[in-house]
Every structure is written in structure tokens, then in C-alpha cells.
Write a structure and sequence with these properties.
alpha/beta, Arc Repressor Mutant, subunit A, 6-stranded mixed β-sheet, 63% helix
């Protein structure tokens, strides 16, 4: 038993011996060490934290890695063999952890042992002459480092292989989690905002940890009342672990039960029950997030731990008002976004230093500008003002940097600021799906298609159930002229938004460019009913198509239908003119949007838009790009 130990060195020495005795057991972790010591995990965690400021999982991992280094120096096996000997179930994951901890890969020790080289130098042992037929030492060293470099390239880069191959290779070692909505067991429906806020807060804290993939709230939302088992949910969401729980309101208190499940094996990892005052709920999310990191044996940097423990506000009422705002934000209608903004503003009245609330207001202004609710001149300066205020209060707030970057890209056309802010948002929170989406959109605008694809794929991976993610992906495929590749994501987008005029029109144009006249005609007939106030034109279209073919139908669409039902949609009118080869008219329509500040935000994407490739090199189009700061970007 370890309870009686009185000094930290003795305590750590005993713990180290227990870990070493179970070194090869990859399942030996926090729970097993606590059982061996005879004290609870909580007590063990506190004592270890006090002794050397480490979590239990960090302590175990460092012992494994240090023993591995010793074995490598003694040449007791290959890298893979030693990985298994020290309890790593995956050699590739062992190499990554070793590299992160020591700063170099384990293969370096086998190829070049610094300790051995120092020993040779100190004793001045003469270097034996190379035997006939052997390679010179310098050549051997060079070859060794080349092998190491190639190994690292294969492990950490794609080395010319497909992205899917690399993802498959790393999938076995990557931990991922979905945080399901808490079940509200109360008769009080008003407590729902609290249940949703708790879930999102835990999710956001974990999302700052690089060693785990965290699925977005939107992706988890469909499992609010699941009809399938946790393993089935995990399979659909492609995660290794699931956090689920319930909340029960009892007067001024809430009882919260949470459990962490190893979804692959369908086994319970950890659970706990918390009784909290309604006014003291915001300490709970930090406690649970730290416990999850502990149970999953995640190695946290100081910055990641600080993000998990961070309190955005010390005012409990401000925190509750912010949660109410988030509740309405996720309902997404214009009315709900306005309501959410009002809650954020009330939160700021309670705590003028609440950076997250300022970032929320900036996001709301972005959305309301896109929806046409606020005039451009009013909303865009406010969006920038609130985002910069949030950053001044907390420079590490990914949400604020993402909001400012999106505003700079869509509305200000300040491309350098957009890149700086969006890259920083991703660095601060690598699991922030919306930041990857915004950055992917920005790269699409500039025509950096390969890099844009990487970030949009990541956004979809983190948030596979959001229409906006697939819409951005469809736009990129279209701009690349990859109409076949576009099909799957377009289908997904239309599953989430069946009546999307945008997706129908994109498919219509893709069919036109592919020369699929009949398919384009059929798509046009499907698209027209989604336009407000339009009537049934099937007979008219059938007659025009029979007489003049698809070009006659496109001309009718341009000369009659758009001007009757969508006369201010200059961007789409320009795209139809460009298709018909009428370059001057296409540029006329684009210039109309540039002069109208309420419409000009749509122009941001013209440089890489497939519709306008035909305009590249035209002096008027080049002049327009220069006015948008896009000519040299």
C-alpha cells in the first residue's frame, strides 16, 4: 500500500516501480495504477499533481518513453519491438509520442547514438580503418539519415500517397470523441438551454487538445433522442469514444450524470454524478473535461491544460446569459440570431470583460449581414469592432479570430488580415470546424484549391452533418471543374437542405458545361419551383427546348425568368451571360454588384469561379479584381 508514504521522492519512486512492473501491458493505465496503489484515482491525481505537477497519464507515458529510450540505447530490439515492450499497441503512435517528447524519432538512437559517440571521443579510441569492400563511415551515416528522413516523411507526410491512405494508417491511433446532448429528465423545459450549454462547453474545451478529434455540436445534435446504440452512433460518427449523460433539475440545484464509453468495445470507461447549484454550474465543465483527458490518457501541453481550465467569466449570471444566447444561436433563423445577440449583450452588461460574448456578437453580425437584415455600412464595422474587442480581452480566443477573419474575407476584402486571423484561429483550436470552413472558403476565393480542399475536408470530418460545410465543398469542386467529384457532396448538401436553390442551380450549370443538355433541362424545371412566386412553366419550357435546344432555354431564363422573378440577382445573371459568351454583359452585371454595397459581398468569389474563367484577361474584369485587391493574390 502506498497510503503511508510521507515524502514525494518515495511516492514517485514507488509509483514508477509499479508502472515498470506492468510496462508491456498496453491496457495498464490510470485505473490500474490507482488500484495497485490502493488509493482512489482522485487522491492519486492530487498527490501526483502536487508532487511533480503531472497528470497520472503523463507520468505513466513518460516512464514508458524513458524506458524505451534505454532499451534503444542498449539495442534490445527494433523500434517496433520496443514499442510493444513498453506498452504501445501501435509502433507509429509510439514514434509520434517519442518524437513529441524527446524532439527526435526513436530511429535516430539506433542509427546514431549520441552517448556512444561521446564515450568514444573521451577515451580517444582510434577509429578502425575501413575494411576492403565496406562503405566509408560518412557514407553509412548519410544513408542512415536518409532512411530516417524517408521514414518520417512517410509517417508524417503523404509522400505522394493519397490522403485516404495516410488517414487509414493513422486512424488506428487517433482518439476521437462525440459529446452527445444531455438528456433533460426535468419537467422544466427551460433547463434545456443549460443542458445544451454544458455539452457545448465540454466539447469546446476538449477541442483545443491536438491529440484528439472532437466532433462538432451540430454533428452530435441528431442523437438527442437516439434510436440506436452507442456503438452504432460511434460508427456513424467515426469516433472511438462517446460522452453521454443526463440532467435533472431539483429546485435550485441540478443533478448531472455523465459517463464516458469506449465505443469500439462498448465498455464503460468512467462515470460520475454531480450535484450543483444552478448558480455554480460553470466549474463543472472544466472538471469533466479534465477527467475525460485523464481517462483517455491524453498528453496535454501547458497551453491545452490552461484552455481546459480557463474561465471566460467569473460572473455566474453572465455565463448563464451566454448559454441562453448559444441556445438561440444554434436555431439559426434570423429571429433567433437577433435574440441570441441580445443575450450576449446582456452577458456583457454583467461582465464587460467577457471576451467570448463579444466574439458571439461579431459572429451574429456576420450572419445577419449575409441574411440582409442589417445594412452593410452598419453591420460590418460592428462585426470588426466586437471581434477586435474580444481579441483585446483574450488574444487566444479562436472564436474571435475566426469571426474577424471571416469578416475580413467576405466583407472587407482585406486578404492579408483574413489569412492571419483564420490561420491563428486554427492554430489556437485545431478542432474548430467553422474556422477550417472559413479558411477553406478564403483559399477557394484566391484559387489555392489544393490547400482549400484540405481544410474543407477537415471541416466536414469534424462537422459531417452541417449543410454549410458541404455547400463550401461543392463550390470548390465546381470551381475546379471537377463536376463528377462534386456529385457526392452536392447530394449530401441537398439531403440537409432539400429546397436549396443554390445547389439546384449549381447542378444545372455543371450539366451545361458537361454538355448534358437533357439533364440540364430537367434540372432547370426542378429549380424553377423553388424560386419565390414563380409559376409552372413546364409547357413553355418544353416548347422552347424542342424548338431551340438548351441554348434557347438558357436565353429564356436570362431574358425573361430572372428579370421577372430575380431582377436583382446580378451575380447569377452574369454567370448566364458568361456561359452564352456575352462577356461585356457579364461584366456589366458584376460591376452593378460592386457599386451596390448591399450586394458586393457576393463578388468575393469571382476570381476562382468556374463561370468566369472565360473573363480572365479581359481588361474590365482585371480592373474589377484590382479594385477588390484580388489581382495580385
Amino acid at each position: 500500500m502506498i497510503n503511508g508514504l510521507s515524502t514525494d521522492p518515495e511516492f514517485l519512486k514507488k509509483l514508477g516501480k509499479i508502472v515498470e512492473m506492468n510496462l508491456a501491458d498496453e491496457n495498464f493505465g490510470v485505473k490500474e495504477l490507482a488500484r495497485k496503489t490502493g488509493i482512489s484515482r482522485t487522491q492519486l491525481h492530487r498527490r501526483l499533481k502536487a508532487a511533480n505537477n503531472q497528470s497520472i497519464s503523463q507520468f505513466i507515458r513518460e516512464i514508458r518513453l524513458n524506458k524505451a529510450k534505454e532499451m534503444l540505447q542498449q539495442e534490445l530490439g527494433t523500434v517496433s519491438e520496443i514499442a510493444y515492450k513498453v506498452g504501445f499497441g501501435s509502433p507509429s503512435y509510439f514514434i509520434k509520442c517519442f518524437h513529441d517528447y524527446f524532439g527526435y524519432p526513436p530511429g535516430v538512437i539506433l542509427k546514431y547514438n549520441p552517448e556512444k559517440e561521446i564515450a568514444v571521443t573521451e577515451t580517444e579510441t582510434p577509429t578502425p580503418k575501413a575494411k576492403k569492400g565496406s562503405l566509408p563511415r560518412l557514407m553509412v551515416a548519410i544513408m542512415g539519415f536518409v532512411i530516417i528522413a524517408l521514414s518520417l516523411t512517410v509517417l508524417f507526410g503523404n509522400f505522394g500517397s493519397k490522403k485516404e491512405d495516410v488517414s487509414t494508417m493513422l486512424a488506428a491511433t487517433t482518439k476521437s470523441i462525440a459529446v452527445l446532448p444531455l438528456k433533460n429528465l426535468s419537467e422544466n423545459s427551460e433547463i434545456q438551454y443549460l443542458a445544451d450549454g454544458i455539452m457545448e462547453d465540454i466539447l469546446n474545451r476538449l477541442s483545443h487538445v491536438q491529440s484528439i478529434d472532437v466532433k462538432s455540436r451540430i454533428s452530435s445534435e441528431q442523437y438527442r433522442n437516439p434510436q440506436i446504440s452507442v456503438p452504432e452512433i460511434a460508427k456513424e460518427m467515426h469516433v472511438t469514444h462517446v460522452l453521454e449523460g443526463s440532467i435533472l433539475n431539483q429546485g435550485d440545484k441540478v443533478r448531472i450524470y455523465v459517463q464516458l464509453i469506449d465505443a469500439k468495445n462498448d465498455i464503460h470507461v468512467w462515470s460520475d454524478e454531480y450535484n450543483k447549484d444552478l448558480t455554480d454550474i460553470f466549474n463543472f465543465t472544466s472538471e469533466v473535461s479534465k477527467q475525460i483527458a485523464e481517462e483517455l490518457e491524453l498528453i496535454l501541453s501547458a497551453g491545452e491544460m490552461a484552455n481546459i481550465e480557463k474561465k471566460q467569466t467569473k460572473d455566474k449570471e453572465a455565463y448563464n446569459l451566454y448559454l441562453m444566447g448559444r441556445y438561440f444561436w444554434h436555431r439559426k433563423t434570423t429571429k433567433d440570431v437577433i435574440t441570441c445577440m441580445n443575450f450576449y449583450k446582456m452577458a456583457i452588461e454583467k461582465d464587460p470583460n467577457y471576451g467570448l460574448a463579444y466574439a458571439g456578437i461579431a459572429d451574429a453580425y456576420n450572419t445577419l449581414t449575409w441574411n440582409g437584415y442589417y445594412p452593410f455600412e452598419e453591420s460590418v464595422p460592428k462585426c470588426k469592432e466586437y471581434a477586435m474587442k474580444a481579441i483585446s480581452l483574450d488574444p487566444n480566443l479562436a472564436e474571435a479570430h475566426a469571426a474577424l477573419g471571416d469578416c475580413a474575407s467576405d466583407f472587407l476584402w482585406d486578404w492579408k488580415l483574413a489569412e492571419k486571423e483564420l490561420k491563428l484561429a486554427i492554430k489556437l483550436n485545431p478542432n474548430f470546424a467553422l474556422a477550417h470552413k472559413y479558411y477553406g472558403d478564403y483559399l477557394n476565393i484566391l484559387g489555392k484549391n489544393a490547400e482549400a480542399r484540405k481544410h474543407l475536408n477537415k471541416a466536414i470530418e469534424l462537422n459531417p452533418l452541417a449543410y454549410s460545410m458541404y455547400h463550401s465543398s461543392v463550390t470548390l469542386y465546381y470551381n475546379e471543374g471537377d463536376f463528377d467529384g462534386m456529385h457526392n457532396d452536392l447530394k449530401k448538401a441537398m439531403e440537409f437542405k432539400k429546397n436549396s436553390r443554390s445547389e439546384h442551380f449549381t447542378r444545372l450549370k455543371a450539366n451545361l458545361f458537361q454538355g448534358k443538355d437533357q439533364e440540364a433541362f430537367d434540372e432547370l424545371k426542378r429549380w424553377i419551383p423553388f424560386v419565390e412566386d414563380s409559376v409552372n412553366y413546364d409547357d413553355t419550357l418544353d416548347r422552347i427546348y424542342a424548338q431551340t435546344g438548351i441554348i434557347g432555354v438558357v436565353r429564356w431564363n436570362l431574358d425573361y425568368f430572372f428579370k421577372t422573378y430575380k431582377p436583382d440577382d446580378n451575380y447569377q445573371l452574369a454567370s448566364l451571360c458568361a456561359y452564352l459568351g456575352d462577356k461585356e454583359s457579364a461584366i456589366d452585371y458584376l460591376e452593378k454588384d460592386f457599386k451596390n454595397t448591399e450586394k458586393r459581398y457576393k463578388l468575393a468569389k469571382i476570381k476562382n469561379d468556374f463561370d468566369f474563367k472565360v473573363l480572365h484577361g479581359h481588361p474590365r474584369f482585371t480592373a474589377l479584381l484590382e479594385k477588390m485587391n484580388l489581382a495580385d493574390n
